Amino acid sequence: MRILSVRAQPGRVLFWRSTEDMAVNPRQLAILFAVALLASTLAGCGTINEKLSAGMGDYIPQWAGGLPPDAPPRPGTAKYDAFVAERERQRLMPAAEREKEQKAMQPDQSGLDPVH
Asked: Range of 2's domain?
């Protein structure tokens, strides 16, 4: 037995520590490997390509956390340019005309039967 160090603990007598006490346990090694694997996997999730993650959101259904149907189009597309132009047109329009236009675009609910 080869002695490595002498340690003192409060309220206890000095004890000797040997190389046999520091043997690597296979279970501890497996736990260390699993934690290192999980940490590297989590770190890899944070470095996913920006364009890949932005594009994948378009293909995920709304019920699974994807974009809602009334979400504006992505910047850089032709639809986005038309969306910005329409929004700017509405911004420059007087409020009275804007309200009339919004009422005209809403579906007519007068066809519903009254509740008695």
From this structure: 1-48
**Roughly how many angstroms between the first and final C-alpha of the chain, as a whole number?**
95
Helix (H, G, I), strand (E, B) or coil at 78: helix
Per the CB < 8 A criterion, the answer to whether 77 and 83 are in contact is no
Amino acid at 85: A
Domain contains 64: no
| Block residue for tokens 């409020």 | 95
Judge residue 43's burial from the number of C-beta atoms within 10 Å of its C-beta, 0-12 exposed, 13-18 middle, 19 or more buried.
exposed
DSSP state of 47: T
Mean pLDDT by 10 residues, the chain (116 residues): 54 56 80 92 71 70 78 85 91 84 72 65
Residue 105 has a CB neighbour count (10 Å cut-off) of 7
- Look at residue 113 and tell me if it is in a domain: no
Flag whether 13 is in a domain.
yes
Residue 12 one-letter amino acid: R
Supply the pTM of this predicted model.
Answer: 0.40
